[in-house]
Amino acid sequence: MKPGIVQRIFDEHFPAIDAGRSLDARSRWAAQNIRTCRTPWQGYHVDICPNGDYRIHLNNSCRHRACPLCGATETELWLERQSTKELRCAHHQIVFTSPDSLRPLWRWNRKRFTNLYFQAAWHTLRELLADAGHLGALPGVIAVFQSWSDELGEHLHLHFIITSGGLSPSGKWVSADLEYFLPVPVLAAKFRGKFLAYLREGFKTHTATGKPKPEDQILVPPPDMSVRQCLNLFNKLGRVKWHMQIEPAYAQARGVMKYAGRYIRRGPLSERRILAYDGRRVTIGYAHPEKHSRPTFNLAAQDFVLRLLTHAPEKGTHCARVYGLYHSACREKLNQARSQLGQPPYEPEAEPPDTHELLHRMFPDFTGDLCPHCHTRLVTVQVVRRAHSPPRRKAA
Ligand SMILES: [Zn+2]
Ligand SMILES: [Zn+2]
Known about the structure:
Elements: H1 5-20, H2 25-36, E1 43-48, E2 55-59, H3 71-82, E3 91-97, H4 103-108, H5 110-130, E4 140-148, E5 154-163, E6 165-167, E7 173-175, H6 184-202, H7 227-237, E8 244-250, H8 256-265, E9 274-277, E10 281-285, E11 296-300, H9 301-310, E12 320-324, H10 331-340, H11 355-362, E13 379-385
Antiparallel strand pairs: 1-2, 1-13, 3-5, 3-8, 4-5, 4-12, 6-7, 9-10, 10-11
């Protein structure tokens, strides 16, 4: 279907949803952005051809991560920037899944829960790989949080893309066994223990030294549960097996971050997957049709809107992160590793490339910002941003 189809579905169905239930500010702000992306509400910018033969006013895009026109591009740009650090070695991918019964806790603590989730996964991996019995080295990691399943339902999981090797404490590059990266049961049990411990800790109102914790660092129980019930749930989850998956290594030495990034960076939905919309129902193609018995599924339009809003991240939540050798604090170690892998030292670009430049690097045949007369790249000479603040809750 044509670009803008999600905007149309939101325009036609969001007002009824908003009138019928009390949505939180996060959902309403996401909907507001999706509905106004590339409309005058978002302000505008002026692009001109440096040769002076073309000038155009364009409405700004919303840049909200829940917007199908904007969100994925933002993550892709971030990955593109990260990929210049890439180590030329094989990479493994691990998917850390969390049990469905933790979803209500996530809904009421999105940012804090996501932070603890990332920390527990990274600390598990760092400790296991530092163990001389496994790798005995510090890897480089790029990690992405996703909250959706194939049908846009809730499915909380983390994708970790990990160098199949790392830097030993003595500064030597150690390659991992490609067939046998880490024992899955050990990884799963350790992650389960850590994540549950961090969640338990998250409910404490004071630090270990007795200082009160800032309010935004304390987990709140979902409305139909007490803290005690949450702690009981954690105890129960500590006794069952958690699902964990290590994918076969990406053997190619170059471009893995971009390749894997493209696979994992997709937001919950790219508009291209919407195959039909009749005003009531939306037909959507699966991102990985090979995993399903049918190539498409369909949702009532209101469900579609609500499902997309479920995955709008809370402001300030970092859904993609880097760790270990890829973290900016480890530049020296990264360069030690790069020199042993025959790569020049990593130099961050002094002038980070602008969005136009990155788009051209990612999509060499992108022509959306070229002058229609002389095909020179247009230059933005003026940006007028929107003057709106997030909408307040409407009075009932
Ligand atoms: Zn947008
Ligand atoms: Zn021109």
